[in-house]
Specification:
It contains 14 helices and 17 strands. The chain has about 425 residues and is α/β, with parallel strands linked by helices. Helix 5 packs parallel to helix 11 and helix 12 packs parallel to helix 14.
């Protein structure tokens, strides 16, 4: 079925308006009722297709209903296998741990214990923050400007967005924000402020338990840290005996090329947070990876009812076996990312007076506009043409794309054509 090139018709959404909370967000931008999804296409209940450059906010790196993963899931359920297991031993959990260790950790010379903290990325972040404080006996954590780490209180405390922080309803404490890479447009040496505070006994900054960082800030505006900046941060943490936590919830599982987004920088974090695409199929699953010597939890000290969703283990295992036995997907993602960058650079050049900036790494890409209204207009025009994408950044000024890593070249080019036409419409209207 072809992608829609005409404006969507009104959908029957009355029940959502009547009963669902006003907190919903994505459905406001895409006011249609979706029913089916295959690969990089979603279909509404009228059968109209939409090319998906959103991919479940990065939870569907292998596309919707990936055939290899769907077959495993259907077979798993049909055989009456364990579904809910808390932290009990199951064959599905064992298969995942063995495959993850042999195919992901060992080839990268990484030695981590695996914590299953709960079903989502915020659970992974909360576990890392709690464990860092337990290990070090310190309370404060360093985070970065424009960071996003989740919507629970601990994760919100290290998140930068004022709207999201304001929803907490209580003071968010024990976290100190520092400038992310290029926050000052490279007018100052890297970490000059943080280093000074750490070494000045009069600065008032308590020695932190940890630093938490995204190698590419997705919700913060597709801000990609330089490899040398990440290496400098890792060195600073080592010298001051501060634990380094990399939040790879959205940028892990191949989004920037390598399985982990920090691979390019050659660093080894003390802890890593994974979720979104780790299950491969969109099922809830999260991991917190910790150095073995940091694994000092007491039994049950961090737990949750849904930290053992076994069908997610099954699809996660199959995703690794299907896509991570060689570097084919990594190379494909890097090439497709370069393809997007080239097209985005052409748009920047075409509208040179508009101040557009192309941003990102791998298949996490964005175009930054002068304001949020323009980025919104571009996304709306794209939706009218049958393409789904969202905005990000502190003022929503970045048009953000996260297509499935398995997207075909034809689909990618078609989506980029829609983006070019939508930018033209928004800037020349």
């Amino acid at each position: 079925m072809s992608i829609s090139t005409t404006a969507p018709t009104s959908a029957d959404i009355g029940i959502f308006d009547a009963l669902e909370s006003q907190v919903r967000s994505y459905s406001r931008s895409w006011p249609v009722v979706f029913d089916r999804a295959v690969g990089s296409t979603l279909y509404d209940e009228d059968g109209r297709g939409y090319l998906d450059f959103f991919a479940g906010a990065g939870a569907l790196n292998y596309g919707h209903n990936n055939p290899a993963l769907k077959e495993v899931l259907i077979r798993y359920l049909a055989d009456d296998r364990i579904i809910h297991s808390l932290d009990m031993f199951t064959t599905a959990r064992r298969d995942f741990l063995q495959t993850f260790s042999e195919s992901i950790l060992a080839p990268r010379d990484l030695d981590y214990r695996v914590v299953f903290p709960g079903p989502g990325g915020a659970n992974a972040v909360e576990a890392a923050l709690k464990l860092a404080r337990k290990v070090t006996g310190r309370e404060s954590v360093i985070n970065f400007t424009n960071a996003f780490h989740g919507m629970t209180l601990g994760a919100l405390s290290v998140t930068g967005n004022s709207l999201k922080r304001g929803g907490a309803g209580v003071p968010l404490v024990h976290a100190t924000p520092m400038p992310y890479d290029d926050y000052f447009n490279q007018d100052y040496p890297d970490f000059f402020y943080l280093e000074r505070l750490l070494t000045d006994s009069g600065s008032g900054l308590n020695l932190p338990a940890a630093v938490i960082v995204e190698s590419v800030q997705g919700e913060g505006g597709i801000n990609a840290a330089r490899a040398e900046w990440l290496r400098g941060l890792a060195d600073l943490c080592r010298r001051h005996e501060i634990l380094l936590i990399v939040d790879d919830v959205q940028m892990g599982c191949g989004r920037t090329g390598g399985f982990f987004s920090f691979e390019e920088a050659g660093i080894v974090p003390d802890m890593v947070c994974l979720s979104k695409s780790i299950s491969g199929s969109g099922l809830p699953m999260a991991l917190t990876l910790v150095r073995p010597d940091l694994d000092i939890w007491e039994p049950g000290e961090h737990n949750g009812t849904f930290r053992g969703i076994a069908p997610a283990f099954a699809t996660a295992t199959e995703a690794i076996r299907t896509y991570w036995q060689d570097d084919a997907l990594e190379r494909s993602t890097i090439l497709k990312g370069a393809r997007v960058e080239s097209r985005f650079n052409a748009i920047v050049s075409e509208f040179g007076d508009a101040g557009i900036v192309s941003k990102g790494r791998g298949l996490a890409r964005g175009l930054q506009f002068a304001d949020g209204a323009t980025a919104d207009a571009v996304c709306h025009a794209a939706f009218e043409r049958g393409l789904l994408m969202e905005t990000s950044g502190p003022s929503g000024e970045v048009m953000k794309i996260l297509p499935a890593l398995t997207i075909t070249d034809e689909e990618l080019d078609r989506g980029l054509d829609i983006i070019a036409a939508s930018v033209d419409e928004a800037l020349t209207a």
